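#struct-pred

JT: dropping the chains for the assembly here, can someone run the whole complex?
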Amino acid sequence: MTDELTSAQREYAGLVIREGVNLTPGQKLLIRCPLERADFARLCAEAAYDAGAEEVLFLWEDDALIRMKYLRAADAVFDRAAPWETGMLNDLSAEGACQLAIVGEDPDRMQGVDPGRIRRARAVRGRALEPFRERQTRNEIQWCVCAAPTCSWAQKVFPALTGDRAVERLWEEILRACRVRAQGSVEAWRTHSAALQRHVETLNALRLRSLHYSNALGTELTVDLPEDHYWAGGAERCIRNGIYFSANLPTEEVFTLPRRDGVAGVVYASKPLVLDGTVIEGLRFVLREGRITEVSARTGEKVLRDATATDAGASYLGEVALVPWDSPISQSGVLFYETLFDENAACHFAFGDAYPCIRGAESMDREQLLARGVNSSMIHVDFMVGTPDLSILGTTEDGKQVPIFTAGTWHDLPKA
Amino acid sequence: MTDELTSAQREYAGLVIREGVNLTPGQKLLIRCPLERADFARLCAEAAYDAGAEEVLFLWEDDALIRMKYLRAADAVFDRAAPWETGMLNDLSAEGACQLAIVGEDPDRMQGVDPGRIRRARAVRGRALEPFRERQTRNEIQWCVCAAPTCSWAQKVFPALTGDRAVERLWEEILRACRVRAQGSVEAWRTHSAALQRHVETLNALRLRSLHYSNALGTELTVDLPEDHYWAGGAERCIRNGIYFSANLPTEEVFTLPRRDGVAGVVYASKPLVLDGTVIEGLRFVLREGRITEVSARTGEKVLRDATATDAGASYLGEVALVPWDSPISQSGVLFYETLFDENAACHFAFGDAYPCIRGAESMDREQLLARGVNSSMIHVDFMVGTPDLSILGTTEDGKQVPIFTAGTWHDLPKA
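RK: done, full complex below.
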């Protein structure tokens, strides 16, 4: 690893702490990280203490040990959540600690694992982590997802490169996607975030009622947006303390939620996605009155089908996100096999839990949100649908038709 | 790392699981390990699943992050125990899960840290872990401490070697000390364990009342042994299920406990010890009626003094262990800065908690044990006192004097 790369990683760690979670003095920080990237977790911890963290805590993950457990542990294990890990996430989020997830998992770590074990473990973990998930989804805490390459992930992305070289190459892509440079990374990030904010303002001013997606892959989908929805993107605001934070580094998206029962048609994924350590290729959903009624995929169909059956909300959509086909991540031409990146290279949806982008949501409980069309689930799985020929046509509340995307990218919208 | 070394590590991992904790099918295993030695933890996990483990769980430690926390976290942090970690140790030990600790810490990791923070953190952690510690001390669970080299530890032991070479050299010493060979390691370990058992039987047959230690360092110490004490060494027996296990790999010791109020004189350490990440050199204690009344040390005196003041029992001795000066670890000439090894190179004592080596202890509570002279504390710290000229003279219950050690090693004792 060159000195230059190490210093760029330190710059990224600083960006993650200052602009990602935006930790303020006296706050705690919980870092989830692959064991293999403890070096990067240490840089983040240093940056957090520099910012005045009260304490930095850790949850470590290891693909090899997780895979070993799924293949070899006793069957009953998959019907129990690990109370210490879920307790840590629930308790620290209740205290208002910042949460930083460093992703870097092997996209194939669950290859050959019994899908029933994955499904059962996801269900018990989902239930056990409900308090944490709810606080994160509602932005009651400052949280951020960033990335650091493990060797198996890097080799999946760059199969022609060997271990260390693949890791270095993936580091370069991650740092570029986050606009990290020798200096001024924070300013570059803020400029980018402000640009996303301008798209948000334009969309909000349009007061859209629905979107219609179509492309040559075969997607023909109408997505109704709930009353009082708003678009978000760039920095978000923690409702507990008003602090702005960036939930994803990188991010290129502007997003809102669909009305739970207002999605109809057929949609095809334009990129693979990794779900519970399984690569899903060729996803196709048919939806009626919001519900996914047909599921198919070329690879990983069983895992995908199980995921949409996790709970009642898992077969409804929870996110509508717009990303131009010519975003920097898309232009890199790299398929990352990691949602944090691939979702930022293409327009996407998620099935499962919705971010409650409804005005007044802070004071509504889950029942009230549901009545307003906000889906709820213990899962939230993004899938990419953007293509170079994607068109998205909007219909406003007063029935006017407005092109939002043409040829895969922003149509020249009227300024807000 | 050579293939030969990797295969020896795999052999060691198998030994640790089969002879160390002696895991039986359906049992859980908790592994505590430095992040940096995840490779060895994975080998142990594989061996555990081979032996039929229900599930293997992990607690990860990192010297750099621990040091960073002690230097930079807010002061209040050191008056709180981490409930998730202590919960994991307490809960899993209550279920009867096997416990494997892989030690490998940087002996200097706490250099320059405020001793007050170390003392306070030790006290809260000690109180929080009382249930776990008690189960371990009483052998209510199968437990084992083994070792794997981290880079900083290896470089402290072999300062003339650089990173990887130091780690390989320390691996070689660890494997040799545990009698690991290409094959037959289990048989070699059992033979060694049986030899320790023969010393145990000889000592138990003598029915000793007290021991007197003396050497040219200046040690002149009389140690009374409680009524109904017994000596132990080699394999121990879990009182919950009767399974034999080896609590330390390596081990060369035969040990019992002193009578709490029955130690008097002066004692000098013959090797440094590492206490809470601080190297203590030149330890000297004066004891009266069992209590340490004078404490001094050339380095780390404050940390040592604080440790003996942790609680009421911390200033009394809790272990008497006999190790010949010509043990293989001693003959290696290596100073390990790690008690697991250095205690097996020399006779030693511990201050703090006593292993209740009293007949009938299983059915006694802590008060009853105390009345029988069994010390209790939240700490247990070994310190080495053996020298090539150490003599230990025993006095039996009927007043006969028997030489136990002469010139640092076993006197030719009558066979049991």
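JT: nice. The first strand of chain A starts at residue 28 and ends at 34. The mean pLDDT of chain A is 94.
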